[in-house]
Each structure stands twice: as structure tokens, then as C-alpha cells.
């Protein structure tokens, strides 16, 4: 470590080193500021945003139907609990497996496409899934009324208590963050970013981009399914709103607000979006209009998102003593 | 059977009228324009207000609705769409969706969120091959065919139309001829918006007018544009009527599956013929 660190630099270095502790502390603080119920929801949503960011932030593919994968996990969890066994861990496992399986089946069709086509084909599949849950399989899913799910107490995990759910969700989030960081800092993460910039060149280097995209897609779908299962574990209730294609935009907004392509950005985005959508309606009656204006501002003025600007601000702070001028904002890694 | 056919043609006609604008924006600017649904909804609401407050007949009210969306579409084109030209598709999707959110909320502010039913403006029906068909539906089919003929003439016979078609093919080549392509794209955008408003006006008496009426229709219109081939005017025509028939035939056997079947068709098309965009 450089010994000639200034005080803010040392502080940031310390934050980086113990970032997991900082994240835990911030979420604990959030339980005090708002309720624990809400914080659980925020954390699970953050897992979903992280899963989404693998495709959007790193690989540069905007999916407009990611609720399908969330909903698959949610329904897989609920149906396992209902029909097979009420062991919550078995149900979680089945949920993640079904997310992965869906990714494996749909992946070969979806990952070949880019741009608007990628967005729309996801939307089409999401609409199909929504229909299956709402109408075709309504005998099992309960259709619009949804279904209740009860899980057993296993060892120390009694999920009827909110504290247990909170600890489990926090633990899951930390594990997911850890995995994501390992993933994105590896060669695989580099290849994903390469595909975002220029896929042909990555192919030229001799890499099989199809395989890379498939793996990224399956990681994203299984993590989304995991988030969906956690939501049901928390609510013990599943409705079609968990697979509603119109809600797919929520995760896109969260990703954009936070800043795509960074683990911290996804966390910042998930929490910011949830804060906006949960509390803004209490103060501003026309909150959708407000959200729309925020989004336009994000797209036209603040494309790097909250985290991108924090990074840029810090870089400027670092650069000033050396006499360099402010750098243009860059998305943080 | 006849009524299923007629219903399919009616839906197809309306889908065609709405999809033209989407197809043009995608073809010219490679932008997936969610704000299109706003113009569609706005058309229906302005028709409603003209009917109730001004007390005019259906046809003048429809005219007012179609003309009233021109300034709105100009603002959207000038301040949102044009700034997104040549940028990543993702930002265009998000920005136009934001416009849709703002617009729908404004509509809820002005008109309220409760769906307002509208009566059939013609009210009569004719007997064709032993089946009672509302005249209004037949008029819709007729209007959509007229629009198809008019657009064919516009794009093949007039200079403006030819420039737009040429711009769809190769924007840079047209620009190098000294033609300000963006101006003509703005014309195409406004034209598409007016047609979307007309679609909203025509569909309003069949369904109830509500702030969210645009969302579902928009998704189906995207399917029409994708199936018809992005930016292809004739392809959109064929796809609109084909998918309209798919909807009405599916709806006849299994009502709730009608919308979903459209997406199944779109998925199949994308599997076998993915678009590079």
C-alpha cells in the first residue's frame, strides 16, 4: 500500500477493503430508518438487479422481459412447496434449477439476437409465461388470485419470523455480491465486456462468444429465479404480478439509476428505485410523471447513474492535487 | 365463421393503422418508440372530449383528435427522438418509455383513471351471408384499405415519400445528395403519429377508453412490425392482417389466449429469421 495516502484516499481504501461490512452496515441502518419488511424487499430486489446487470451492464443486452425469470423462480418455489415438500431449501434449489433450465432452453434462441430484437424476444417469452401462469396453468397457480405458500422450520431457519428472513436475505445478497465480483473480475467478465464493445473482435481472438453469452444468460436467469424464490419466501404468497411483463421496466430503471456495469451501482440503483417507488407516492401525487422526468434526465444528462457519478467525483478529487483537470464521468468497475 | 373473419379484418385494420408509425420510426431511426402508445391513447381521449364538450359529430371529432396530436408528436420528435438518433437502442427504449409514463400520468391527471365507454357511432348493422355485422367494423376495414392505398401512392409517387423510402434504405447516401434527411424523417414521424391517433379514435368505440389502453396494443404492434419485417411498409400491412386473423381465430376457440398467440408467432418468426438491429 502506498504510504503517501491523503486522508480521503486512505478512507476510500479502507471502505474498499471492508466493503462487505459497509454494505451490511448500510442495510442495517436502512432497517432503522425504514421498516425491516421494506429492507428485506430492497435486498431481494438488489439481487434481481445484480442478476439483470450481468446481461445489461456487462454484456450490453437490454432484456425487456426479465420478469419471466423472476416469475419462474417464484412459481417454482411456490409449487415445490405446495406439491413436493415444504422444505424451504429444497424449494429454493428447485427454483434456481428451473431458472437455469429455462435459460438453457431459451438461451440458444435469445442470445443470438442483439439490440431491439433481444429486448422484444424476451418480452414475447415473458408474455407467454404470464399467460401460462394466469390462464393456462391457473388450476395449479391459482391464476389471478395467486396461492399461499407455507414452509417448514428447518434447524435454526424459521422463516415465519422476519428476523430470520432478513438474515437469510442479507446472507444471500452478500454471497451473490461476492460471486458477482469474482465473476466480473475474471477473464469471463472481461469477455462479457468485450462482447458489449465489439463481439466480432472477441471472436477474432478465438473465443466462442456463443458459449460465453449462454453462460452469462443462464447465470442471469438462475439468479433472477433465486430472487423470485426469495420474494415468495418473504411474502409467503405468489401472484401473477411476479411474472407481469409490464413490471419488467422496474429492473431496467433500477439498473440505469444506479449505473450499469458495476456491483455497487446495481446495489445503489436497487435501493434508490425502491425508495422512489415506495415513498415518492406518499409525497408526490403524480409520481409516475416524476419518475418519467427522472428517467429522461438520466438518459440525457446523467447516463453513468448514481454510482458512475460517485466514481467520477472521486476520480476528480484524486486528480485535483496533481493539477489535472476533471475527467469525464466514467462508469465505475 | 364470417363474424370471426370480419373481426380479424377489423383488428388487422386497426393494427395496420397503428403499426405504420412504429414501422417507420424503426426503419428510419432504429428506435423502438414506446411513446407511440401515448399518441394512440391521446387520440382516443381527445375524441372523447370533442364529442362531449364541443358537441360535434364523430367525424369532425375524429379529425380534431388526429390534428391535435401533431404538436405533441412534434415535441416528442424534436426533443426526445432526434436526440437519440444514432445512439444505443437501449437508451431509446428507456427514454421513449419515460415519455409514455409522463404522458399516461398526465392523461390520468386530466381525464381520470376510470375507463370511459363510448357508443358505436354508426349503430347500424348489416346482414352478410346470414351474419349480423356492425357497419362500423366494415367502415374500419374500408378505412384501413384506403390508408394502405394512399400510403402506397405517397411512398411511390410523391417526392417526400420517395425520400423517406430511400432514407430507410440508406440514410447516408440520401444525405450525401444534399437532402436534409432528418426533416423528412420528422414528417414520417408526424404522419405515423397521426395514424396512431386515428387508430385510437377508431378503436375507442370498440373498447373502453382508459389511460393504459396503449400498453397492450403497443406490444401487439411491435409484434406486427417484427413479423412484417422492420421498416417494410407492405410487410406491415400483410403482418397486421395476418396477426389480426390469428387473434380473432384464437379468440374464437380460447378467448384469453388471443394476445399471447401473437407473441408466439412473433417468437417463431424471430427464431427462424432473427433481425440484425
UniProtKB/TrEMBL annotation, chain A:
Keywords: Cell membrane, Membrane, Transmembrane, Transmembrane helix. GO terms for cellular component: plasma membrane. The keyword Cell membrane applies. It is a multi-pass membrane protein. The keyword Acetylation does not apply. The chain crosses the membrane at residues 20-36, 42-59, 66-84, 90-111, 118-137, 163-183, 204-232, 252-276, 288-310. It is found in: Cell membrane. Coiled coil: none annotated. GO terms for molecular function: branched-chain amino acid transmembrane transporter activity. InterPro entries: ABC_transp_permease (IPR001851), LivM-like (IPR043428). This is Branched-chain amino acid ABC transporter permease. It comes from Desulfobacca acetoxidans.
UniProtKB/TrEMBL annotation, chain B:
Its main location: membrane. It comes from the Bacteria. It is found in: Cell membrane. GO terms for molecular function: transmembrane transporter activity. The chain crosses the membrane at residues 6-24, 31-48, 54-76, 88-114, 134-155, 184-206, 212-233, 253-272. One of its GO terms (biological process) is amino acid transport. One of its GO terms (cellular component) is plasma membrane. InterPro entries: ABC_transp_permease, BCAA_transport_permease. It is a multi-pass membrane protein. Coiled coil: none annotated. It holds the Pfam family BPD_transp_2. Keywords: Amino-acid transport, Cell membrane, Membrane, Transmembrane, Transmembrane helix, Transport. PANTHER family: ABC TRANSPORTER ATP-BINDING PROTEIN, BRANCHED-CHAIN AMINO ACID TRANSPORT SYSTEM PERMEASE PROTEIN LIVH. Belongs to the binding-protein-dependent transport system permease family. LivHM subfamily. This is Branched-chain amino acid ABC transporter permease.
Amino acid at each position: 500500500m502506498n504510504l503517501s495516502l491523503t486522508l480521503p484516499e486512505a478512507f476510500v481504501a479502507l471502505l474498499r477493503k471492508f466493503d462487505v461490512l459497509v454494505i451490511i452496515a448500510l442495510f442495517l441502518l436502512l432497517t432503522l430508518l425504514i421498516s425491516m419488511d421494506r429492507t428485506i424487499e430492497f435486498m431481494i430486489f438488489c439481487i434481481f438487479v445484480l442478476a439483470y446487470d450481468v446481461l445489461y451492464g456487462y454484456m450490453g443486452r437490454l432484456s425487456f422481459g426479465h420478469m419471466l425469470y423472476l416469475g419462474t423462480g417464484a412459481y417454482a418455489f411456490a409449487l415445490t412447496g405446495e406439491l413436493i415438500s415444504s422444505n424451504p431449501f429444497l424449494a429454493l434449489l428447485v427454483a434456481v434449477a428451473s431458472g437455469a433450465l429455462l435459460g438453457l432452453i431459451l438461451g440458444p434462441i435469445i442470445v443470438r439476437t442483439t439490440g431491439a430484437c433481444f429486448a422484444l424476444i424476451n418480452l414475447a417469452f415473458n408474455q407467454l409465461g404470464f399467460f401460462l401462469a394466469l390462464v393456462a396453468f391457473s388450476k395449479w397457480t391459482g391464476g389471478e388470485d395467486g396461492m399461499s405458500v407455507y414452509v417448514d422450520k428447518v434447524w435454526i431457519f424459521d422463516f415465519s419470523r422476519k428476523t430470520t428472513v432478513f438474515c437469510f436475505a442479507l446472507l444471500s445478497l452478500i454471497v451473490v455480491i461476492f460471486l458477482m465480483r469474482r465473476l466480473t473480475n475474471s477473464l469471463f467478465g472481461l469477455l462479457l465486456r468485450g462482447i458489449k464493445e465489439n463481439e466480432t473482435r472477441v471472436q477474432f481472438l478465438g473465443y466462442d462468444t456463443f458459449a460465453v453469452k449462454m453462460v452469462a444468460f443462464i447465470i442471469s436467469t438462475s439468479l433472477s429465479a433465486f430472487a423470485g424464490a426469495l420474494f415468495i419466501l418473504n411474502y409467503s404468497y405468489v401472484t401473477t404480478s411476479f411474472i407481469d411483463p409490464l413490471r419488467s421496466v422496474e429492473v431496467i430503471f433500477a439498473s440505469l439509476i444506479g449505473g450499469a456495469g458495476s456491483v455497487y451501482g446495481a446495489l445503489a440503483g436497487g435501493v434508490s428505485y425502491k425508495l422512489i417507488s415506495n415513498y415518492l407516492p406518499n409525497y408526490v401525487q403524480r409520481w409516475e410523471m416524476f419518475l418519467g422526468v427522472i428517467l429522461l434526465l438520466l438518459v440525457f444528462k446523467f447516463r453513468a447513474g448514481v454510482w458512475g457519478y460517485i466514481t467520477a467525483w472521486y476520480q476528480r478529487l484524486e486528480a485535483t492535487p496533481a493539477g489535472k483537470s476533471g475527467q469525464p464521468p466514467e462508469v465505475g468497475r | 365463421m364470417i363474424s370471426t373473419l370480419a373481426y380479424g379484418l377489423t383488428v388487422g385494420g386497426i393494427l395496420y393503422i397503428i403499426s405504420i408509425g412504429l414501422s417507420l420510426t424503426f426503419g428510419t431511426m432504429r428506435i423502438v418508440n414506446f411513446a407511440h402508445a401515448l399518441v394512440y391513447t391521446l387520440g382516443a381521449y381527445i375524441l372523447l372530449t370533442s364529442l362531449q364538450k364541443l358537441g360535434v359529430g364523430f367525424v369532425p371529432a375524429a379529425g380534431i383528435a388526429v390534428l391535435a396530436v401533431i404538436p405533441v408528436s412534434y415535441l416528442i420528435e424534436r426533443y426526445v427522438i432526434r436526440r437519440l438518433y444514432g445512439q444505443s437502442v437501449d437508451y431509446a427504449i428507456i427514454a421513449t418509455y419515460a415519455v409514455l409514463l409522463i404522458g399516461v400520468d398526465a392523461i390520468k391527471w386530466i381525464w381520470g383513471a376510470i375507463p370511459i365507454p363510448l357508443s358505436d357511432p354508426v349503430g347500424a348493422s348489416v346482414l352478410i351471408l346470414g351474419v349480423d355485422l356492425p357497419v362500423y367494423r366494415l367502415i374500419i376495414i374500408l378505412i384501413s384499405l384506403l390508408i394502405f392505398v394512399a400510403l402506397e401512392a405517397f411512398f411511390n409517387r410523391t417526392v417526400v415519400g420517395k425520400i423517406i423510402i430511400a432514407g430507410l434504405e440508406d440514410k447516408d447516401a440520401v444525405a450525401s445528395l444534399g437532402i436534409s434527411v432528418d426533416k423528412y424523417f420528422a414528417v414520417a414521424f408526424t404522419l405515423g403519429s397521426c395514424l396512431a391517433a386515428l387508430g385510437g379514435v377508431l378503436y375507442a368505440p370498440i373498447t373502453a377508453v382508459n389511460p393504459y389502453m396503449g400498453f397492450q396494443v403497443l406490444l401487439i404492434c411491435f409484434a406486427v412490425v417484427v413479423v412484417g419485417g422492420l421498416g417494410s411498409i407492405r410487410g406491415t400491412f400483410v403482418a397486421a392482417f395476418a396477426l389480426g386473423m390469428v387473434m380473432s381465430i384464437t379468440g374464437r376457440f380460447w378467448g384469453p389466449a388471443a394476445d399471447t398467440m401473437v407473441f408466439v408467432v412473433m417468437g417463431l418468426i424471430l427464431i427462424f429469421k432473427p433481425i440484425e438491429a
